[in-house]
Amino acid sequence: MPKVDSWRRLDNSAKIFPIASSKKYSSVFRLSVVLKEKINPKILKEAVNISLKKLSSFKVRLRKGFFWYYFEDNNKDIIVEQERNYPCKYIDPNTNNDYLFKVTYWENKINLDIFHSLTDGNSGTIFLKEIVYNYLELAHPQDFSKQLRAERKIANNTEDDYLKNYDKKSKGAKSGKKAYMLKGKRLPFGAIGVIHVNINLSKLKDKAKEKEVTITQYLTAVLIYSIYNSNYKKYNGKKPIKVCIPVDLRKYFKSETLSNFFSYITLQTEQSTNLSSFDEILKFVKRGFIEKLDKEEISKTMSANVKLGNNLFIKLIPLFFKVGIVKLSYIEIRKYTTTTFSNIGRMGIIGEYQKYIDKFMMLIAPESVEKIKCSACSFDNNLNFTFTSTLENTEVEQKFCKKLKDEGIDILVEGNGVHDFIS
Description:
Blueprint: E1 7-9, H1 16-20, E2 28-35, H2 41-54, E3 60-64, E4 69-73, E5 80-82, E6 101-106, E7 109-115, H3 121-139, H4 146-150, H5 161-165, E8 193-200, H6 201-211, H7 215-234, E9 242-248, E10 262-268, H8 278-292, H9 295-309, H10 312-316, H11 319-333, E11 339-346, H12 351-354, E12 357-364, E13 372-379, E14 382-389, H13 395-406, E15 411-415
Parallel strand pairs: 5-6, 9-11, 11-13
Antiparallel strand pairs: 1-4, 2-7, 2-12, 3-4, 6-7, 8-14, 8-15, 9-10, 13-14
């Protein structure tokens, strides 16, 4: 075991990912920024190294202990290279100097792929923004004062806030029925289709306000409507459509941790809901969000997961035996979700830096069970909604885009060339 000050335990959520992940199920998400200028790779690498000095919690590698994995300081050289592969791929430590994140670039785009054991989407955006700030300061030193640079302070806090905030007496809710799984012919192994839907944020806000829902609720309803009217009806689906929505726990509990600190809610369509009516879906989604985003309900889900990780029997099982148990359990758990939709919200950028930035994007790795996953983030007047998919057909994506246009919302569609997509 290394020195105490050179290692740390994984947080409660992080423990599961090294055991459950593989080349088939990467547990990797991507955050990207598109600048208004071509990327200089030498400056980008310097910017990453400067960022790691401030955010040392990212400068680690994963090590195998007797009972659990743990993080250890990593002093190897960081690798920054041109993008050559599909997004959100398994990060092989042997080809990445043991780092749990990967930085790539393509023309004017910077990508940050992160293994979920390292952190969640919220803290991932902090790291990406720090890289962007440092890159722009190095590329345009005349535009940014020393005082402005000095004011950018981040608490390098890696506390496991699950342990601090969970309720030992709380009982978790049952998982309910297994979910409808999206069907269709798969892309070749390893391929991931990406479709970005750039949505006019002003018009989206107006429409959500008109319907008396939040933006996330509105987009969730469009997603369910699109799944039902394409894949679900085509394959005569019987099981409920279940959408998993990650929730940032920092909004409910006082926390500045850069480690994982998220939970989730699951919306399960009901037999009584008329899924052919968009307005009925909106009512169902709004009601589900109100009920499930209650702090007490959020605490129940979080606490149940923490108690499972802290179970004495599980803790005392050697890692060698845990692997098989966890893998089988995780495969079973994933059968209770049709798709995941994660909206990390507005990417707040300090004013002086905004003129160099075009947009941000978030992508989540799809896998064998959840064949399509969705994510969103916004910057300026653009909300980027992204589909990542292992399916050949794009019926869900096309229904989604058509519904937005029918609702009078302006969109612009882009892809990674895997699908011949026409919105």
